[in-house]
Design brief:
The chain is an alpha+beta fold. It is about 55% helix and about 15% strand. Belongs to the adenylate cyclase family. DacA/CdaA subfamily.
Length: about 260
């Protein structure tokens, strides 16, 4: 086996392949958890691990013993904390989308410009519907998820599973529609469900003018990797909720960029 020899290390071809494979796995995991609350959880665990090393180096026996007990159940803690991300990963494998059907992933990996253009085409009916509903001051809550969770949405929603269209979105949120209360969930380039009841945020520092739509949009962005577009029935103003934070008075240009970036 050929090796590359340096003064302090030797790298074989097998080592190089091993490093590349690990780098690809790390890169894919990063794309799986980016823009989600899992990033903050992972950062917290890294901080605890760093504190453990410092405490152990300083021979602080009591604190070191407590942290050792915590670290001894680290694998179990990882499984519990990252259960949603592990579930998404297994879903990707089970649906055979990781290597074959997920063309968007390959396009992103190899830098295809067509993916971004196609994404803008898919977003256009949503932007057009938002323009119409803003003009008519029709209240709306549209939630975008990367992975549709049947357990989270199926029990409280009406299944639609339809192609995204401007007219369908407008008809769902029309005042006298039986589905206008609740949220529309979009995933896998489809309107998956409508009239969804979502968990409300517990944040008590929100402005008093925020109604149930805003609180539900913020709430779902706190507990999942979803983002939410909220149209106020009173003002027609568009808000964008992500990771528990909300951006107010979003223009259509900004909305297009945000959706194209996040999905």
């Amino acid at each position: 086996m050929k090796t590359l020899e340096f003064d302090f290390l030797k790298i074989t071809v097998t080592d190089a392949v091993d490093i590349i494979l690990v780098a690809l796995i790390i890169y894919y995991i990063y794309n799986l958890i980016k823009n989600t609350l899992a990033v903050n959880l992972l950062l917290g665990m890294v901080i605890i691990l760093a504190i453990h090393w410092i405490v152990d180096a300083l021979h602080m026996s009591l604190l070191s013993g407590i942290l050792n007990q915590f670290m001894s159940v680290g694998i179990i803690a990882l499984i519990v904390i990252f259960q949603p991300e592990i579930r998404r990963f297994l879903l990707l494998i089970g649906k055979n989308t990781f290597l074959q059907q997920n063309k968007a992933w390959w396009g992103y990996l190899f830098g295809s410009k067509n993916i971004e253009q196609n994404n803008l085409i898919r977003i256009k009916p949503i932007i057009d519907a938002c323009k119409s509903m803003k003009k008519s001051r029709t209240g709306a809550l549209i939630v975008f998820v990367k992975f549709y969770d049947d357990q989270l949405f199926a029990n409280s929603c009406e299944l639609i599973d339809s192609k995204i269209s401007k007219r369908l979105l407008e008809s769902i949120f029309q005042k006298y529609s039986p589905l206008h209360d609740g949220a529309v969930v979009i995933a896998e380039n489809k309107i998956k469900s409508a009239s969804c009841i979502l968990p409300l945020t517990d944040n008590d520092k929100l402005p008093p003018q925020f109604g149930l739509r805003h609180r539900a949009g913020i709430g779902v962005s706190e507990t999942t990797d979803a983002v939410a577009v909220i149209i106020s029935e009173e003002t027609g103003e568009i808000a964008y909720a992500k990771q528990g934070r909300v951006r107010m008075n979003v223009s259509f240009g900004e909305l297009e960029k945000l959706l194209n970036k996040d999905f």
